[in-house]
């Protein structure tokens, strides 16, 4: 199986009160995959404006594969306003429409998709018709072995029927507890009960629910695995879930045991939460397993 990953969706600037940083969940996942030794292709679009040129330069310096980064002459590069509360938790104001709302299928992209080992996609980039149709085209023939739906809900930029369509096309789904409670509303039992209900509806092979400072739970191939989390001082939570997901994807691509993947993912996510921004450089010992 190919070890490369397509990261499909939004690339943007996260603008804070004191500056801006490259962002977007698929882009963050790609950057963390690169740090973990996995080739990552960005499938997105930027504007032909100064903001887009600056963003592309940043991406080139990050060793990302940019063959499938499109350039839109009509729509602007996305700049998101990020506000952090006292606990470092972020809220986002996302403009619409922007360049990544208009990602188009190309023959080269579809050929690459047929050869890749994994694709990571989320709900935000599916808010507009063109990008949503391109993703559904890529997913339609089920040739990609690992199809990862990062639920990543950003109100008001989603519709539940689209979420259900994407869940049905994935064999790995990652969501946080709030998203699990929203999407699995028919079951008032334990989180494990909710996960089993989700599996019963969508037949997903691997389901992961992250629990912030309390770690995560994974249901995989008929078994539950849990991790209690890693205690760190939070700088901000931007990108922590993306770092966790990248570690999960890299582990699945390399066919590592789920307990090892989960332990590593929680450590990487906690490290990112302890740093400012979504893509800090890892210390040399971070990916080691005790």
Task: Describe this structure as you would to a colleague.
The chain is of the alpha/beta class and 290 residues long. It has one domain (5-273): Ribokinase (UDP-N-acetylmuramoyl-L-alanine:D-glutamate ligase, 3-Layer(aba) Sandwich). Helices cover 35% and strands 23% of the residues. The chain has 9 helices and 13 strands. It has helices at 25-35, 50-61, 107-115, 129-139, 160-169, 177-183, 191-202, 240-253, 258-273; strands at 5-8, 12-16, 19-23, 40-47, 69-72, 78-84, 90-93, 118-122, 146-150, 172-176, 206-210, 216-220, 223-227. The strands form 2 sheets. Strands 5-4-1-8-9-10-11-12-13 form a 9-stranded mixed beta sheet, with helices on both faces. Strands 3-2-6-7 form a 4-stranded mixed beta sheet. The longest helix has 16 residues, at 258-273. It is globular. The two termini are 28 Å apart.
So what's the overall shape? globular
Unreliable segments of 5+ consecutive residues: none
Proportion of strand residues: 15-25%
- Write out the CATH superfamily name: Ribokinase
Q: Give a short account of the largest sheet.
A: 9 strands, mixed
Q: How do the SSEs run, as a string of H and E?
A: EEEHEHEEEHEHEHEHHEEEHH
- The tally of domains stands at 1
Structural class: alpha/beta
How is the largest sheet built, in terms of strand order? 5-4-1-8-9-10-11-12-13
Helix content: 25-40%
* Global mean pLDDT: 93
In short:
This protein is of the alpha/beta class.
Describe this protein with a few key phrases.
290 residues; alpha/beta; UDP-N-acetylmuramoyl-L-alanine:D-glutamate ligase; nine-stranded mixed beta sheet; four-stranded mixed beta sheet; globular
């Amino acid at each position: 199986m190919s070890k490369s990953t397509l990261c499909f969706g939004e690339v943007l600037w996260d603008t804070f009160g004191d500056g801006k940083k490259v962002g977007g969940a698929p882009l963050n996942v790609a950057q963390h995959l690169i740090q973990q030794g996995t080739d990552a292709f960005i499938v997105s679009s930027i504007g032909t404006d100064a903001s887009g040129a600056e963003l592309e330069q940043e991406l080139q310096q990050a060793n990302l594969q940019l063959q499938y980064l499109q350039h839109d002459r009509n729509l602007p590069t996305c700049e998101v306003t990020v506000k952090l509360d006292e606990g470092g938790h972020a809220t986002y104001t996302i403009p619409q429409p922007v360049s990544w709302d208009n990602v188009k299928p190309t023959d080269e992209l579809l050929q690459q998709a047929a050869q890749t080992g994994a694709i990571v996609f989320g709900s935000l980039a599916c808010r507009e018709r063109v990008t949503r149709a391109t993703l559904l085209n890529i997913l339609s023939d089920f040739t990609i072995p690992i199809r990862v739906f990062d639920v990543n809900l950003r109100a008001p930029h989603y519709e539940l029927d689209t979420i259900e369509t994407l869940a049905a096309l994935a064999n790995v789904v990652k969501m946080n507890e709030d998203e699990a409670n929203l999407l699995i509303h028919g079951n008032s039992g334990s989180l494990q009960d909710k996960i089993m209900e989700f599996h019963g509806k969508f037949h997903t092979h691997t389901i992961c629910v992250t629990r912030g400072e309390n770690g995560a739970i994974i249901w995989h191939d008929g078994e539950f695995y849990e991790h209690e989390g890693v205690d760190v001082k939070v700088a901000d939570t931007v990108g922590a879930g993306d770092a966790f997901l990248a570690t999960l994807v890299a582990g699945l691509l390399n066919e590592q045991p789920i307990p090892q993947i989960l332990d590593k993912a929680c450590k990487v996510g906690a490290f990112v939460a302890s740093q400012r921004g979504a893509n800090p450089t890892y210390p040399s010992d971070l990916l080691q397993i005790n």
